[in-house]
Amino acid sequence: MFPVSLRMPLEMAPYGVWGMLAAFLSLLCCRGSGEKAFEGPEQLMVGSGEFQFINCTAGCTDPKRIVLETALNKTLLENQAQWKLFKVYNISKDEELLCSSTCGGKQETKVFHITVFYPPKQVLLTLSPTSVAVGTLFTIECRVPAVAPLEGLTVTLLRGTDILCNQTFVGTALSPQDAVVTHNTTAHREHGLYNFSCEALMDLRSRGGGLIHRVSDPQRLEVKEPVPNNQMVTIITIVVVLPLLLVTFVLLYRYWWRPHHN
Ligand SMILES: *[C@@H]1O[C@H](CO)[C@@H](O)[C@H](O)[C@H]1NC(C)=O
Ligand SMILES: *[C@@H]1O[C@H](CO)[C@@H](O)[C@H](O)[C@H]1NC(C)=O
Ligand SMILES: *[C@@H]1O[C@H](CO)[C@@H](O)[C@H](O)[C@H]1NC(C)=O
Ligand SMILES: *[C@@H]1O[C@H](CO)[C@@H](O)[C@H](O)[C@H]1NC(C)=O
Ligand SMILES: *[C@@H]1O[C@H](CO)[C@@H](O)[C@H](O)[C@H]1NC(C)=O
Ligand SMILES: *[C@@H]1O[C@H](CO)[C@@H](O)[C@H](O)[C@H]1NC(C)=O
């Protein structure tokens, strides 16, 4: 019973298993190394305009020919009896690459699904205004231009190392769009002590890609103390300080003289 129930799900969901294995291997593998030693379609995430190494491997030791079929530009980097390593470059849209080889008169093929993504190339942080008085509102805006897919993207606003807010995006569209996070907050004195920054983290690990992390340039907020004007100072002195002094003086005087009356 046990081996059967263990085997069934594996056979019923070969893609899921391969997908998991591919994701696992891509974690171990460095970025750009194409080949994993197993059959089945392979999902690859490639940054728009970037390249990908593809290792076409035959299943036998003496294959007749090994071919990589693609309309894209490619160069052959290494040519061995059992495998060929290609570099496919300038990948600008989703593609399917086909590796084929002939083993003992039988043709074998392996498909590579390439999905183009748009990594965060820039993270733009804007404080507006850049100079505020304590207690007034200011806006922090972080813009990550032309990214896709939005799903898996987290944008975090930071003050020093403190997280002010973070936002995870949704959307599987593969056309690039801007991701924007805005946060309104009241200026405190300590806001002027730390730099503000914004982090974009794109996590494509569930799709066979990697983790891409980008940080904005730090921005400083100038926090101004509310400066009381001279008139205010004078009025405060007259209204608060002088009566206080008078009362204190009177109380002290009475206290001092009380023993003489007793
Ligand atoms: C290509 O794949 C084969 C079989 O998995 C492996 O032996 C070979 O080292 C790989 N070549 C490169 C350059 O990764
Ligand atoms: C492939 O690269 C060559 C040389 O870099 C270039 O002349 C050619 O136009 C490219 N072809 C494609 C389809 O990009
Ligand atoms: C890369 O592809 C784009 C669009 O497909 C093309 O305009 C550009 O000339 C290509 N660059 C190279 C180096 O082949
Ligand atoms: C975003 O914030 C949530 C809770 O507010 C936290 O659990 C999560 O780890 C944060 N993510 C990042 C990338 O900082
Ligand atoms: C922040 O304030 C601006 C006006 O100052 C407003 O247009 C914007 O919607 C506010 N954003 C948030 C997230 O509250
Ligand atoms: C803020 O960023 C600037 C660079 O723009 C750096 O010189 C400075 O040390 C940073 N200040 C703090 C408190 O991190």
Automatic annotation (TrEMBL):
Stored Gene3D superfamilies: Immunoglobulins (2.60.40.10)
Name of one Pfam family that matches: ICAM_N
Disulfide bond recorded as keyword: yes
GO cellular component term, pick one: plasma membrane
Signal peptide (from-to): 1-34
Annotated TM spans: 232-256
Subcellular location: Membrane
InterPro entries: ICAM_N, ICAM_VCAM, ICAM_VCAM_N, Ig-like_dom_sf, Ig-like_fold
Topology within the bilayer: Single-pass type I membrane protein
GO biological process, one term: cell-cell adhesion
Gene Ontology molecular-function annotations: integrin binding
UniProt entry keywords in alphabetical sequence: Cell adhesion, Disulfide bond, Glycoprotein, Immunoglobulin domain, Membrane, Repeat, Signal, Transmembrane, Transmembrane helix
PANTHER family for the chain: INTERCELLULAR ADHESION MOLECULE (PTHR13771), INTERCELLULAR ADHESION MOLECULE 2 (PTHR13771:SF3)
Family: Belongs to the immunoglobulin superfamily. ICAM family.
Name the UniProt record assigns to this protein: Intercellular adhesion molecule N-terminal domain-containing protein
Species whose genome carries this gene: Cervus hanglu yarkandensis
